[in-house]
Write a structure and sequence with these properties.
With 227 residues, the protein is α/β, with parallel strands linked by helices. Helix content is 41%, strand content 18%. The chain has helices spanning 17-25, 46-52, 66-79, 98-107, 128-145, 161-166, 176-186, 202-207, 214-225; strands at residues 3-10, 32-40, 56-60, 84-87, 113-117, 157-160, 191-195.
């Protein structure tokens, strides 16, 4: 049976991580599935709760950032020879049932990388400033990498074994969301988007990319990519 690795980068998510993991474990996934929480230097009980829920926990001693956490998760996918990997936010923003929608085109081999887009349907559910922020990053992704996407900041992504093997992330923090697209372009990976639902709460909104952060992220992205 083929293997799926679900990767959840987590920094101080003790309040919600147990609920997120339960939602994933309740899914009827037609693959051998391992859930990997990348504990990014948390100072709360994120790691303990994750282990108690049956997840594999990989821990950074210090907080290294979203990009570093995703890189650690994908490296683990390489080591464990996962056939598919899916990344999700650990703040409760994503509906676990959407995982099956992301997985389907990977299993069918119709794409190498799937982006779960919050903006293909129900755009009104995203707060206005978030929509503006997202459009700015979508434009950035197109002008820098020549890749069209409706949701460049989505943390809900799927990868087949080829994408897992080829993608090599260099950025450590939020700029990683855009860096994925330069890897997709460089390796000529087949990209597709599927609509996903989003669950906005004051908690999940506080965890996301802040409106106005676009210029700092652009600077960091260019600085790292030009090295």
């Amino acid at each position: 049976m083929k293997k799926l690795l679900i990767i959840l980068p987590a920094f101080n998510e003790a309040k919600i991580i147990g609920k997120v993991l339960k939602g994933l474990k309740d899914l009827n996934v037609p693959l051998k599935t391992e859930i990997c929480v990348v504990n990014d230097g948390s100072t709360d009980k994120t790691a303990l709760i994750s282990r108690q829920a049956g997840a594999t926990v990989l821990t950074h001693v210090i907080n290294r950032g979203l990009g570093a956490s995703l890189s650690t998760g994908l490296e683990y996918a390489k080591i464990t020879r996962a056939d598919f990997a899916i990344t999700m936010d650990s703040d409760g923003q994503h509906d676990p049932s959407d995982l099956l929608n992301i997985l389907k085109p990977l299993i069918n081999n119709s794409a190498d990388v799937i982006i779960g887009s919050r903006l293909l349907e129900n755009q009104s559910e995203m707060p206005f400033l978030r929509r503006v922020n997202n459009k700015l990053f979508n434009l950035l992704t197109y002008f820098l990498f020549g890749v069209n996407t409706t949701d460049s900041l989505s943390g809900f992504r799927g990868f087949n074994s080829q994408a897992i093997r080829l993608i090599n992330l260099k950025t450590d923090r939020m700029e990683v969301s855009n860096e994925f697209f330069t890897e997709i372009k460089h390796h000529r990976l087949r990209l597709a988007e599927v609509p996903i639902k989003v669950i906005y709460t004051p908690y999940s909104i506080a965890k996301g990319v802040k409106p106005g952060a676009v210029f700092a992220i652009i600077f960091k992205l260019l600085l790292r990519l030009l090295r």
